[in-house]
Amino acid sequence: MPANILRAKLWLLTVAFPPSKALTHKMKNAPLSGMQVGLNPFLQQLGVEILSAENGRAQLSLTLSEQHMNSWQITHGGVLMSLLDVAMAMAGRSAHPEQKGVVTVEMKTMFLQAGGGPTERLLVTGEVFHRSTTMCFCEGAITLGEQLVAKASGTFKYLRRLPPTKKNEVSQTDGSD
Fold first, then answer.
1. Which residues contact 166 (CB under 8 A, 6 or more apart)?
2. Under 8 Å CB-to-CB from 10, ≥6 apart: which residues?
3. Quick one: which of 73, 79, 90 has its CA closest to 23?
4. Is the pTM of this model over 0.70?
5. Sheet holding 101-111, edge to edge
6. How many other CB atoms sit within 10 Å of the CB of residue 6?
7. Can you list the alpha helix ranges (DSSP code H) found in 102-152?
8. How far apart are CA 151 and CA 84, in angstroms?
9. Please, are residues 88 and 152 in contact by the beta-carbon 8 Å criterion?
10. Which of 21-25, 86-90, 126-130, 152-156 is predicted least confidently?
11. CB neighbour class for 1 (10 Å; exposed up to 12, middle 13-18, buried from 19)
């Protein structure tokens, strides 16, 4: 993977899941329940709610609105993939809380049926099925009521927080590479 792409992914990861002693402490000792995502503007804009994240499992939900729809007035596939990616990443982080974050290495998604319309609520789960010291392998699923909407599998690399450097500080503040 080219260095500039890896740096961009690391920057996005820091924005999506910034290292936080409080968050790490909560993930080690108690589920994150009923918490709105305030650490990530993208997830906050989507309206994602974290229901839990502990012991290699994560669960979140999203009440759909017009902003989540595609031109056919069903949930956009990018919204579904983002939800699966976040749920699996949170599951991976909760399985190895001493690490500072994860970055998606690979993800496969299967769309099984339409993802619902405005006002409907999606439930998203992520679970680690194998992990090593540097990688974790996860599965995720989205349901709408009793119906399975999408499934995914993903590989995530554990990361430690990089020591601050002049270049990292610039990249993290303005998004440039």
1. none
2. 103, 159, 162
3. 90
4. yes
5. 35-36, 49-54, 57-63, 121-131, 135-144, 147-159, 101-111
6. 12
7. none
8. 8
9. yes
10. 21-25
11. exposed
Please check whether residue 122 is in contact with residue 149, taking contact to mean a CB–CB distance below 8 angstroms: yes
C-alpha span between 100 and 148 (Å, rounded): 32
Q: In this model, does residue 176 exceed pLDDT 50?
A: no
The tokens for 82 are 């983002």
Q: Which residue has the tokens 């108690």?
A: 30
Q: Which pLDDT tens digit goes with each residue over 71-100?
A: 999 999 999 999 999 999 999 999 987 777
Residue range 32-54, pLDDT digits in tens: 444 444 567 888 899 999 999 99
Closest CA relative to residue 18, chosen from 45, 46, 37: 37
Chain position carrying tokens 């440039």: 176
Cβ 123 vs Cβ 61: under 8 Å: yes
Residue in the structure block whose two tokens are 């949930």: 75
Question: What residue type is assigned to position 69 of the chain?
Answer: M
Residue keyed to tokens 């994860």: 102
